[in-house]
Amino acid sequence: MAARGEAILAELSSLPAHVRADYIRILETVVRVAPRAWTRRRGVRLQWITLQDGGDDVVVQVDSGELSKHVDWDGPRSTRSFAGALREKRGTNQCAALVHGNAIDSRTWGWVLPLLLGQLPRLDTAVMVDIEHRAGARSTFSFPVKYRRLLVRRLRFEEDVRAILRRARAM
């Protein structure tokens, strides 16, 4: 297993058992839905994944503007500006996660501004997952990605993330 996989396992093992179980459920959902929501133009779509109170329901929603009241639109988007929205979303759920690509700042102003500046917009090189749990735990996970070039470009994780999460579940 690569160093990044070991780091993910170390992060998960440092959490209390009930928080770790919730994190693993969220991360398994991320691994399933992030590649399907990726597009070449938009990168990894902003998505909310929540674990609701009193049930085993994991809900996936594409962000429909909830972040707009928290994001500093004068500068690049960053995880710092997402913290308030994540905390607000977690307030009504047991656990909340925000999924996004690591090149989100290059897409803040769309594709036009980078082209005017003589740069190509960057592709995401990692899927970022910011998770906050009601128990107070907060973590950020990064899953490096690559792109298979067939007829249609597809997003794939560099490591076998499912195997890493299976190992974490067995801890």
Topology order in helix (H) and strand (E) letters: HHEEHEHEEEH
Strands side by side in the biggest sheet:
2-1-3-4-5-6
Number of strands: 6
Indicate the percent of residues in helices: 25-40%
Ends apart, CA distance between termini? 16 Å
Give the low-confidence spans.
none
Short note summarizing the structure:
The protein is 35% helix and 25% strand. The protein has 171 residues and is an alpha+beta fold. Helix 1 runs parallel beside helix 5 (161-169).
Key traits:
single chain, alpha+beta, globular, 35% helix, 6 strands, 171 residues, 6-stranded antiparallel beta sheet
Structural overview:
Strands 2-1-3-4-5-6 form a 6-stranded antiparallel sheet, sandwiched between helices. The chain has 5 helices and 6 strands, in the order H-H-E-E-H-E-H-E-E-E-H. 35% of the residues lie in helices and 25% in strands. Strand 4 (126-133) and strand 5 (138-149) form a beta hairpin. With 171 residues, it is α+β, with helices and mostly antiparallel strands. The chain has helices at 3-13, 17-37, 79-91, 112-116, 161-169; strands spanning 47-51, 58-62, 95-101, 126-133, 138-149, 153-157. The mean pLDDT is 78. The radius of gyration is 16 Å and the shape is globular. Helix 1 (3-13) runs parallel beside helix 5 (161-169) and helix 2 (17-37) packs antiparallel against helix 5 (161-169).
